[in-house]
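Hi again,

Forgot to attach this to my earlier email, sorry! This is the prediction with S-adenosylmethionine bound. I've pasted everything inline since the attachment limit keeps bouncing my files.
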Amino acid sequence: MQLKQALTEAVARLTANNVPSPRMNAELLLMFTLDCDRAYLYAHPERDLTADETSRYQSALAERLRGVPAQYITGHQEFWGMDLIVTPAVLIPRPETEHVIETVLELADEEKRAEQECPPNILRIVDVGTGSGCIALALAGELPQAEIHAIDVSTKALELARVNAVRHQLEGRIRFHEADLLTGFEENSFDFIVSNPPYVGESEEDEVQLEVRKFEPRSAVFAGPTGLEIIARLIPQASTALRPGGWLVMEISGTIVEGAKQLLKGWEELRIIDDLQEIPRVIAARKISPGMPSYRGTAAG
Ligand SMILES: C[S@@+](CC[C@H](N)C(=O)[O-])C[C@H]1O[C@@H](n2cnc3c(N)ncnc32)[C@H](O)[C@@H]1O
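Structure tokens for the complex follow:
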């Protein structure tokens, strides 16, 4: 069968089975099968697929038709310009999570400007619930002077995050820890605590895409009955582990934003950042800092 015909048939099957973005999926899986880029698909429409290629393409399509996310079939997902390995042991990194990275970089930049007259200080950052390592790796790449820690309760997730760190030559920059949130981390030690925690409530399970429910790790998605259970534990721990004036930056959803604000009452400053769909996506809270020198001030929210 020719490449063009294989693609046309795949798009038709995916469409008939209501798989979203059928052309994108058909192309992605063919690129994966042939180990080529999209330009190659368009440059060689008449290229014959070998029997082995046809069989592997059909298997990949069958997996997709059964609902397996394309990223678990190909084993790859792009995040912050990096190609990351993903397996069903970890959540597939989402583009919205890049807002977490942007927020940390903006805050770090504000801190740097505010502290210009002080001796340079090495930023200590911890990513809680690192999964594939996407947040820790992006921050390690962007902040070459920072000391980065990555925590997860899942051994398999940590193994994969390490693999991703090695692939991007960042293994020397990140320390990995198997822990329950921040349990065991010392007081006043971090400038930033960053997390994309599980924040979906079991009560809203029916609203979660079937593919997510069936194939992504439940412990990475669901926090408990309301969705606030993990952050309700993380916030008091963060309040201890942050240095005064340090920032807790978490991914959230529109469903938990009000609950998250309540849990952060008493923190010095609160910022909510919307995603491109204008859904509250990131909450940043600054640990109260009695007697903080005026140069730190409070940045505009
Ligand atoms: C929503 S996923 C985020 C993964 C990754 N940071 C990302 O943004 O794609 C949440 C992660 O938190 C981890 N996790 C869940 N409960 C945890 C706990 N009590 N302590 C540490 N990590 C936990 C899960 O294993 C999962 O990897």
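The pocket of S-adenosylmethionine is lined by residues 90-91, 93, 97, 129-132, 134-135, 151-154, 157, 180-181, 196-198, 219-220, 230 (CB under 6 Å). The chain has two domains: 3-66, 95-296.

That should be everything now.

G.
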